[in-house]
Amino acid sequence: MKKIWLKRAVSVSLSLAMVLGLAGCGKGGNKMENAALAKEHVYKFQEIEIPDLGGDDYSVRGSVYRDGTIYLMAQVYHWSENSDDIDMKMLTMKDDGSNVQLVDIEIPDWRTQSGSGGSTEPESGDGADGSSEPEEGAGAVARTEGEGAEATGSESGSEGESESGAGTEGEDGAESGSEGESGSESGTEGEDGADVSAEAEIDDGMLTGSENNIYENSNYGNFVFGSDGMIYAMRNYYYEDYSSEEYTSVQKNYISCWNPDGSFAWEKELEGLVSEDEYIYVNTMTVSQDGTLSLLLSGDNSYIMTVDAQGNASERKPLPEDVGKIFNNYNSIMNKEDGSFLVIYNDESDGQKQYLVSYDPVTGQLGEPGLLPSSLSWSGYNTMVAGKTSDLVYSNSSGVYTYTAGAEDSVEKMNFINSDLNISYFNSLIEMDENTFIGVFNENYENKVKAGIFTYVDPKDIPDKAVLVLAGNYVGSDMKQRVVEFNRSSEEYRITIKEYDSYNSYDDYQAGYTQLNNDITTGSMPDIVITSGLPAENYVAKGLLADISKLIEEDEELSQVEYVQNVFDAYSVDGKLYYVIPYFNVNTVIGKKSIVGDRTAWTMADMKLLMETLPEGTNMFGEMTRDSFMYTMMDFCGADFIDVNSGKCDFDSQNFIDMMEYARTLPEELNEEEYGEDYWRNYESQYREDRTILRSMYIGSVSNVNYTVKGNFGEEVSFIGFPTESGMGAYVQAGDSYAISARSANIDGAWEFLRYYLTDEYQSELGWGMPIQKKYFMEKAQEATQRPYYLDENGEKVEYDDYYYINDEEIKLEPMTQEEVDAVVEYILSVNKCYYGNTDISNIISEEIAPYFTGQKSAQEVAKIIQSRAQIYVDERR
């Protein structure tokens, strides 16, 4: 059970910021020339630790700031107790983080409430008139500025997940009847033939549990806070019965109300909201000064209805067509303080365009829609609220931004990294004034939810340090966390981050790579570069990268370490290594030893000889077309045709022509008839039944090999590699690779940061890929001789067996023997060629090879054209 102890803790983190559009770092000379870059968009963080809420996890369902007091509504879950029950708690605190109070929200037995088919009517003196005063310390509660964002305490999604519109505060449409839930059937017959409609009673006999194929659930959403302290929410009830031949489905929707002290006031069913004839759900809800709730309904049609402070619901009224279209195409809805909405919606005819418009549910007035900048819709956001000094305040994985209607672009408000925080996403965000906001967030995708006050720091109050710029098209959360830790600990240096994917757009998905490459080659190279996806060999040829091998040699600790030398050799140019490589993998081609022989290299001629001995219809590679073969060939053999040391191309060689000739024997497209009922059976057994001979294999760990060899093939294999004249048809690939600018004024600082990835501290804890330190590489290899295991709730190791399933047959995979591990390790250490991936070269091949496939040109003619174009391409970039 999560324990978060209540105390007021203040941790102030002052950090540096990076100006949007920052081109690069030093080019030699003054180490402090970029110190000014560290003084923008910096916020200090005052943490407010959340008290123990008494459950396994929780989510913040609503938040508001009013008259110096902050209110957070949390739902608490009890998963470890195998219970669907939830608790609700309201946290209140002063805007300086003091006087934290926890209020229990009373939840009636919803089975009783829903089962009765009725409502708990408001009674005089029980909060029905909205006149109840809050308890001392609770204060008067206001309307939320944008409630409803689910601030879950558990990890949300993988690094690199799309942020667009997700988790926006005020966007509760999904919670209050999202598509796929509200559309359930209503009014079907029950077991006894009685009509079980949305208004029907559910007796105890129907609540028999999931073991009898009955599903029942109730949840709250769309929380809003009245100015008088009353709290309102939508409750959605679902009941499905699969236990009999007649499927039964019931859905009910309620308005629930609580007094400021958390006691339950009343609940009212919204009768007739669900029907067989029309799919409708509550999109969003807001509350006016007099306690009247306005509900916007979307679905097949759009409506508005009101519920007064006593729970009396009005008839729903159709929304005008233009308003209905907006709410049926909405992306995010934000509640404003005056009870109106800000709506971001998608263009019906162009999904790349989004608009911002205001709507007042009381007057029905619709504002003038304004086109949002494409950068906002492209980059996405994970939390968005209505602002106080701007129209919108939102966050993404890089920082907090503001947007004012009509502006060309958003404005950066806070930079996470430069403020010494690696915030993954805000669960709730409340702007108090131009320089202060409250945030509930998760850091580095950890489970623990943090809350705190963020206050702007004047640049003149930030001390100077030497600033380095770390850049890449994309910077992952692990790297960001490392930067934060480095910045917190270093007395001399600070690192700022620039992610070039911000240049990407719907028109050009590769604009970030293009801009980063241009900055590097035109003299504005960042101090540290994540080289993934970049033509780094060109930078080596131009002398732009620092010699990493020299830095290792001069490092007292790392110079004594033994590395997986063949990886360093594969990536070295003229004996010099220009990349920090923390871990690696190997890619090769395997086949049954009984068919391809006991060898680790062969040529296209060798493969043709083997093909002549095989039964008709046998495939060498599974599911391979002409084009896919050429792309695969370039992955394995690109370095055979482009010498990264000299820049010389060799595409008019017989080796390349042999590749082209084999590709021509393959189908232009895969036969769709092969994807029938037997597709997966045939796919799983193709290697065991010798219908397909070769399989590409990714080796991310020695243990990977066991599953593929004993599962897919079922007998000994040879690591034969891709057929090529060079004798090496496999390649090593750096899992990540980092380079340092040779012109940086802070090479020592860059090395101080990057050397960490080669140390015992990092290598010993590496959870993916094969470590570059040989000691840890060998230790991980030995794990393949052991049964797999997991750690139970007590931290005890629990072993289990691996299985491979083929044609409904369960095949137990025994751990590898020491002899098998030694053979794989020996092979991995023999691979001395690195991956050469160049999309532009592959595209040249794809464009020029078509006339050969159609018989318009000979292989020799096409090879010469490809050679000419490729050589020009390489020469222009060296």
Question: Which features would summarize this protein structure in a list?
Answer:
878 residues; alpha+beta; Neuraminidase; six-stranded mixed beta sheet; five-stranded antiparallel beta sheet; 20 helices; globular
Outline the structure in words.
By secondary structure, the chain is an alpha+beta fold. Among the domains are: 43-456, Neuraminidase (6 Propeller), CATH 2.120.10; 461-582 and 741-766, D-Maltodextrin-Binding Protein, domain 2 (3-Layer(aba) Sandwich). Helix content is 21%, strand content 27%. The chain is built from 20 helices and 43 strands. Strands 33, 34, 35, 36, 37 and 39 form a six-stranded mixed sheet that branches. A five-stranded antiparallel sheet has the order 5-4-3-2-6, with no helix packed on it. Strand 25 (423-433) and strand 26 form a beta hairpin. Helix 11 (626-641) packs antiparallel against helix 12 and helix 19 (839-853) packs antiparallel against helix 20 (859-876). The longest helix has 18 residues, at 859-876. The two termini are 58 Å apart. The model is unreliable at 1-28, 114-118 and 123-210 (pLDDT under 50).
